[in-house]
Amino acid sequence: MYNFKILLYWSKEDECYIAEIPELSGCIAHGKDEFEALKNIKIAKELWIATAKEFGDEVPIAKEELITV
């Protein structure tokens, strides 16, 4: 339902992997390896969406879900 693109990269400055969902402002997580960062971004995404719904904010539609004709 909510499948967003995830940016995953190594941060030299933070010495960890960073995962971001650009379509969800501020939805960022980190981990010691790629798997931990991806696990944490899934949790962050779920919390981001739950918080948006709680406050009546719109949850963006993932770009992949957009249909063009």
Largest sheet: 3 strands, antiparallel
CATH topology: Double Stranded RNA Binding Domain
Helix content: 25-40%
Domain count: 1
Number of contiguous helices:
1
Using the coordinates above, name the CATH class: Alpha Beta
Oligomeric status: single chain
Mean pLDDT: 91
Q: Give, in spatial order, the strands making up the sheet with the most strands.
A: 1-2-3
The span between the termini is: 21 Å
Order of helices and strands: EEEH
- Helix-strand makeup class: alpha+beta
Task: Categorize the overall geometry.
Answer: elongated
Number of DSSP strand runs: 3
Whole-number radius of gyration?
A: 13 Å
> What are the segments in which pLDDT stays under 50 over at least 5 consecutive residues?
none
How would you describe this protein?
- There is one protein chain.
- With 69 residues, this protein is α+β, with helices and mostly antiparallel strands.
- It has one domain: Double Stranded RNA Binding Domain (2-Layer Sandwich), CATH 3.30.160.
- 30% of the residues lie in helices and 20% in strands.
- It contains one helix and three strands; from the N terminus they run βββα.
- It has a three-stranded antiparallel β-sheet with strand order 1-2-3, with helices on one face.
Summed up:
With 69 residues, the chain is of the alpha+beta class. Helix content is 30%, strand content 20%.
